[in-house]
Write a structure and sequence with these properties.
heterotrimer, A alpha/beta, B mainly alpha, C alpha/beta, A: alpha/beta, 5-stranded parallel β-sheet, 9 helices, C: alpha/beta, Rossmann fold, 9-stranded mixed β-sheet, binds flavin-adenine dinucleotide
């Protein structure tokens, strides 16, 4: 039985949360299959970052220019590793890098790829993956072929155990593959925020009551790493610029988290945000329409909730 | 040469020159019109004539703005009366001893005074009142024209008053002194006598100056007119005569041009459109009533006409053609229009703005340019037949909460077929209301049915966004389903659907009777179908553009409101002068760019000026959505409630209604 | 510069997805299909490049039986040619098989730049552009915006989430998975699409595809639907506590 390969990613020189999750899952599967876990990471910090990873072995790939993500070089290298180690599973996060490497490496290696996986378990004979399809409207149960597969995993699917290990780290030096290179890193644009690009929106409606309370929303947004958006009446009142308006006559957003604070959920508003991955609504009126699209709801006063939440998030 | 010969020669030479300039100009315009698209404007001749008469001589539309209307009537009637003078003065010059006589002379004098009063009023209006509607008009031109008119009428009085003294030296005939009936000439001639200007030389000069100011300036006026907005002096009456006499709500009459409705260049205009451009008086009445303009957006219907006219002039002068849509007229202007028709209703010379705007929108659309939210709606109509991004299957879902099922008109014959419309079917806030309408019909024991998921959006808004192909596709879908159904009459909740079914589907041979639910309910009340208890509230009523202006249904909703015992107070702008909510023409789906104050908000404020009015009654589902939001955004909940006429009827009829729809709380 | 845009149709999510509840199979023939949203962006980006540089734009779809309207729409928007790959395909044909078919075609008919939507709603067996590139051994990148030509190289932006981006440059041929076009995709009016149907033809290219690795999808099923928010009780402190733990479960808390 081949090993389980996990492609690690790093944030600020450490294993990313998602990579930890993947390793935890890989460990669990490896145990039940009697296999081993190999972590693969790119860049000069990989060796250090994977030193305590919950893996049996680790391959740190280094080389000139590899600290920066290079699609072509990474893919060719990973392809080579896959062909060398014959892993049963190659797990990558469904990040930009995962979107590049997953299907690309699978096709090059004549393996199948299973994408948008958010669950993995073993049953009587097989490893079974659960995948999200059709924008989350359906789930699919996919049997991992006996010959193995590449799996791209949605971040936040598994949770990590926090266990660390002592993998034997091999450093592998490679040259970057000519043909595609990074010209420059682009800093996030300044100027008013683009709410359509934010992963987290702290959205306020007329329930905010007074423009002075916007400070609370802003503090919460900073604590949670999000951006403040709003419903139309808040823009009408001149409390926030038009660019922050969500809805039919404003922006259509699809963030990972939409906090609807004091928003009633008029159809024109819902039209702009109902496809958010997670909607949490706070509205003193439990019968307000926002509760019909929200995943979680609460009836506490937002003026109490915002500072309480911000404090907790900051305190973490 | 004798003075008389000089004047005669000048009269002839200048007439020929002015005539040549004038004819050439008209020839050019005629050439453009000849190359334009055809349009039939010779239907219903009798009505054309009578209504032209009313508009021209009674100044019906002009008098909507009293001050301007009156001053214009003075000047305009002056033009007619002064024709007498032109003939008289020239004949006097050429036929020695000719006179128009004291009675006509007095009439001329009266009108000289009226015209002068008109001119003073006009100058006061331009210089002191400065109405906003003139913003963007050519003011210099206005003053030049007023100056010439002043010169002409003063000239009349001058040459007339010198005539008795100049008759012998200039014409070699003796003239009787002026009688007191011709009061103006009489008074002035006495003034000249007092001043001692009656000697042959002085009198001859006086006469010649007066004559030149009168007749020669008229010739100059003639030559200048075609280059000024005052071309309307000649074109207004014909333009009123060839105006649209087909149903107002029909935007695209049959036959639809083979190449579509898009207006890209002047060749895509109809000859009437070209004539419109030259007829525009720059009065700005259209601008004054335009909701988009009032909202602070880039659009002014007047400027659209003027921009097109300027561009056409440049093109005729040999300039490179500029694309009309997005070039001559900007995209912002074109997309700001709600197609409310207020401009066309206000225009005293019956210029048709909306078809031009929609035609240019169609050109933008063909190039793929359209507001992105509206684009989604177009795609939704194409795929699911509704603007809500909802499945087709869910269209009849609102019927779920009803005790008695509604007949499927595709399966069994019905008396009335209800065309429900997108908003009434899909908007969760309006579904209670839609059910109420159904319950009212059930209470009245009407045999009615709906098309269930066989109904698609009527296409009225798609057409007004400029997407004719989509309109046609939607119309064909609906017509196919209507073909399957058996019914005696159609009624609609939504005025936009009403308009399409009533006015736009005729192109495809559809001619069944269509009513709005307000009309249908009035019929039922008349038939004694409801036991009504007066509601005793004070309310105002908003005429939806597509019910009122475009379909002239003003009375039915008012009748309904009165029948349920509501004290109706009219807003300043009502009936044909109603002010758009801002939703029409696809605007409800477009981004609100450049809006300083939403038309709906302005409207709510207008209603709030009415004393004791607690309810704002509407007769259009879109209006319920628009005005409910406007009441909220202007912070007037608690002061004014937006209610649909059906809610009032249901309450008066004692129907069990959902709590939140009870109007008299 | 010859640009190829790979397009496909996917079930319209506005309508219900039709599922045989017992077998968990998708009933493809009972669903309505619409062009994949990301592919629309790829077409738009290609047309914008064409406007800048006179590139020649070809749109391609594997003929799964319903693609004509989609291809004519692309032509109406301004694409130069449209190609339909024909063979043993239908609506249930896997992405992997489609990618293989496209790879065969491209091998015979080289292009400089191949664009496609970065993903589609139904690609659990892999995203087509990445697989095409993998099969052909071409360089490729996903989550791409802002594609511009610079001599014989292609410059583009790749997004990494959290507002982070890099500008990359690539040799040709290259395959790019487009996240969003520089401008929202343009509208094709019904009349224009109809006119295209009359005035132009879709080129049909026959391709044979060998066996490819396929996934065994055991069943599709609907996630347990909420319908109404799960209410969190308690005072502000308790609610905040609970929200933070929900966020943590989903990795939405920083650090
Ligand atoms: C054509 C058109 C386009 C529109 N476009 C948009 C659009 O793009 N975006 C948009 O948002 N709207 C749009 N609207 C307006 C829309 O109809 C609603 O009016 C608007 O969304 C309501 O905003 P809201 O929820 O903030 O306010 P409200 O509806 O007034 O809701 C405020 C909510 O806050 C709650 N609340 C009050 N105090 C507190 C508190 N202390 N703690 C917790 N909850 C509290 C209340 O219970 C209430 O539910 C549009 C309307 C029209 C007609
Ligand atoms: S139709 Fe209405 S919105 Fe459009 S230009 Fe005329 S007045 Fe303005
Ligand atoms: S279009 Fe009509 S209303 Fe508008 S300025 Fe011209 S003449 Fe006046």
């Amino acid at each position: 039985m081949g090993p389980i390969l996990v492609v690690a990613e790093f944030t600020e020189g450490e294993l990313s949360d998602t990579s930890r999750e993947l390793l935890t899952k890989a460990r669990e599967l490896a145990q039940s299959l009697g296999s081993e876990v190999i972590a693969v990471g790119f860049g000069s910090h990989a060796e250090h970052a994977m030193a305590n990873a919950d893996a049996d072995r680790a391959v740190a790939i280094t080389g000139l220019g590899l600290d920066q993500y290079l699609p072509l070089t990474y893919e060719r290298t990973l392809s080579q590793i896959v062909s060398e180690y014959h892993p049963l599973l190659t797990m990558v996060a469904n990040s930009t890098m995962g979107l590049d490497l997953g299907a690309g490496v699978a096709a090059a290696q004549h393996m199948p790829v299973i994408a948008y996986c958010n669950g993995l378990h073993t049953d009587a004979e097989d490893i079974v993956a659960q995948c999200q399809a059709f924008a989350g409207k359906l789930l699919a149960e996919v049997a991992v072929p006996a010959g193995g597969a590449v799996i791209t995993v949605l971040p936040g699917s598994f949770g990590s155990s926090g266990t660390s290990g002592h993998p034997e780290v091999t450093v592998m030096a490679v040259d970057s593959v000519p043909g595609m290179d990074v010209v420059k890193i682009l800093e996030p644009e300044k100027g008013d925020v683009d709410i359509t690009r934010a992963d987290i929106l702290v959205s306020v409606g007329r329930g905010i009551g007074d423009p002075e309370n916007l400070g609370l929303a802003q503090e919460l947004a900073e604590a949670i790493g999000g951006v403040v958006s709003c419903s139309r009446p808040v823009v009408d009142a001149g409390w926030l610029p038009k660019a922050r308006q969500v809805g039919k006559s404003g922006q259509t957003v699809k963030p990972k988290l939409y906090l609807a604070l004091g928003i009633s959920g008029a159809p024109e508003h819902l039209q702009g945000m109902k496809d958010a991955d997670l909607i949490i609504a706070a509205n003193t009126d439990e019968s307000s329409s926002i509760m019909e699209v929200a995943h979680y709801g609460t009836t506490v006063d937002i003026l109490d909730l915002m500072p309480a939440l911000a404090e907790r998030l900051r305190g973490e | 040469m004798a003075l008389r010969d000089v004047l005669m020669a000048a009269t002839i030479i200048m007439f020929v020159a002015a005539g040549a300039i004038f004819s050439r100009r008209f020839w050019n315009i005629y050439q453009v019109m000849k190359k334009s698209r055809p349009t039939n404007r010779s239907d219903r001749l009798g009505e054309r004539l009578t209504s032209t008469f009313i508009q021209v001589f009674a100044h019906k539309r002009m008098l909507k703005i009293r001050y301007s209307g009156v001053l214009h009537l003075f000047i305009f009637s002056g033009f007619v009366v002064l024709l007498i003078d032109v003939v008289g003065s020239i004949l006097q010059l050429f036929v020695a001893g000719f006179s128009i006589g004291p009675v006509l002379g007095m009439i001329v004098d009266i009108w000289v005074c009226l015209v002068l009063i008109g001119v003073v009023m006009a100058i006061y209006q331009r210089a002191v009142i400065k109405p906003e509607r003139y913003h963007g008009s050519d003011e210099t031109d206005g003053y030049i024209i007023l100056g010439m008119i002043t010169m002409i009428v003063i000239g009349i009085a001058i040459h007339e008053s010198f005539y008795p003294y100049a008759a012998i030296p200039v014409f070699g005939v003796k003239s009787a002194p002026i009688g007191a009936m011709e009061f103006l000439a009489y008074g002035l001639s006495h003034l000249w006598a007092t001043l001692g200007w009656t000697a042959p030389r002085a009198a001859s000069i006086g006469y010649a100056v007066g004559y030149a100011m009168d007749i020669l300036v008229i010739w100059i006026f003639l030559a200048y007119l075609p280059y000024s907005k005052h071309l309307h002096v000649f074109l207004a009456i014909p333009n009123i005569f060839v105006r649209k006499m087909r149903p107002p709500g029909e935007l695209v009459p049959s036959p639809v041009p083979e190449e579509g409705i898009a207006i890209r260049s002047f060749g895509d205009l109809s000859w009437k459109d070209v004539m419109d451009l030259y007829t525009c008086t720059e009065c700005g009445r259209c601008q004054a009533v335009c909701p988009a303009h009032a909202a602070g957006q880039a659009l002014s219907p007047k400027m659209i006409i003027l921009e097109l006219r300027e561009a056409l002039k440049k093109e005729l002068a040999g300039g490179e053609p500029i694309p009309l849509a997005g070039g001559v007229v900007s995209q912002e202007e074109l997309w700001a229009c709600t197609t409310c028709g207020a401009c066309m209703e206000a225009c005293p010379v019956f210029i048709e703005h909306v078809p031009k705007i929609v035609g240019m929108r169609a050109a933008l659309l063909e190039d793929g340019e359209i507001d992105k939210s509206a684009q989604k709606v177009l795609v939704g109509w194409d795929r699911q037949g509704n603007s809500f991004g909802q499945p087709l299957k869910k269209r009849p879902q609102w019927t779920k909460g009803l005790d008695v099922a509604i007949k499927d008109a595709r399966r069994e014959p019905v008396d009335w077929l209800w065309f429900v419309g997108d908003f009434a079917s899909y908007d969760p806030r309006l579904q209670d209301l839609t059910r109420l309408v159904a319950q009212l019909l059930q209470r009245a024991e009407v045999d009615f049915g709906i098309l269930y998921d066989g109904e698609s959006n009527s296409g009225n808004d798609a057409l007004r966004i400029g997407e004719f192909g989509l309109f046609e596709a939607l119309a064909q879908k609906n017509l196919a389903k209507l073909e399957e159904a058996q019914y005696n009459m159609i009624f609609t909740t939504d005025p936009h659907s009403l308009n399409a079914l009533k006015n736009e589907y005729v192109k495809y041979g559809f001619d069944r009777p269509v009513k709005h639910y307000t009309e249908a309910f009035v019929d039922l009340i008349e038939g004694g179908k409801f036991d009504l208890k007066p509601l005793g509230i004070r309310a105002t009523y908003h005429d939806p553009c597509y019910l009122g202006r475009w379909n002239r249904i003003f009375d039915a909703p008012r009748e309904l409101i009165k029948r349920v015992g509501v004290d109706l107070v009219e807003m300043p702008r009502h009936g044909e002068n109603s002010f758009c909510c801002g939703a029409g023409g696809g605007r409800i789906w477009m981004e609100e760019v450049g809006i300083k104050e939403r038309p709906a908000d302005q409207r709510i404020k207008e209603a709030l000026t009415l004393e004791g009015v607690t309810h704002f009654v509407v007769a259009c589902p879109k209006d319920v959505a628009m005005f409910t939001a406007a009441v909220a955004s202007t912070g007037n909940e608690g002061r004014l409630r937006v209610v649909d006429v059906a809610e009032l009827l249901a309450e008066a009829a004692g129907l069990g209604i959902p709590d939140k729809l009870v109007a008299t709380r | 510069m010859r640009i190829l845009v790979l397009t496909k149709s996917v079930p319209d999510l506005v309508e219900e997805l039709v599922l045989d509840e017992d077998s968990g199979e998708l009933l493809h023939d009972e669903m309505t299909y619409v062009p994949s949203e990301w592919d629309d962006h790829a077409v738009e980006e290609a047309l914008l490049i064409k406007e800048d540089s006179n590139a020649d734009v070809t749109v391609l779809a594997v003929d799964t039986g319903d693609v004509d309207n989609m291809l004519f729409t692309a032509l109406a928007k301004g694409a130069d040619r449209a190609i339909k790959l024909q063979g043993d395909f239908d609506l249930s044909t896997s992405n992997r098989k489609r990618a293989q078919a496209i790879a065969h075609y491209v091998k015979e008919n080289p292009y400089d730049l191949i664009l496609s939507g970065v993903q589609a709603i139904d690609d659990i067996d892999g995203q087509i552009p990445a697989m095409v590139a993998g099969l052909l051994g071409m360089p490729h990148a996903s989550v791409v915006t802002d594609v511009r030509l610079d001599g014989d190289r292609v410059h583009f932006h790749q997004e990494y989430g959290g507002g982070l981006q890099a500008e990359l440059a690539s040799q040709t041929p290259v395959v790019l998975g487009i996240q969003a076009a520089r401008k929202p995709p343009r509208y094709a009016s019904i009349a224009k699409v109809r006119q295209m149907m009359k005035s132009s033809v879709l080129e049909e290219v026959e391709v044979a595809v060998e066996e490819v690795p396929e996934l065994e999808i055991r069943r599709f099923f609907k996630p347990v639907a909420a319908g109404h928010a799960e209410m969190i009780d308690g005072d502000a402190e308790e609610v905040a506590e609970r929200i933070v733990s929900i966020l943590k479960e989903r990795n939405l808390v920083r650090g």
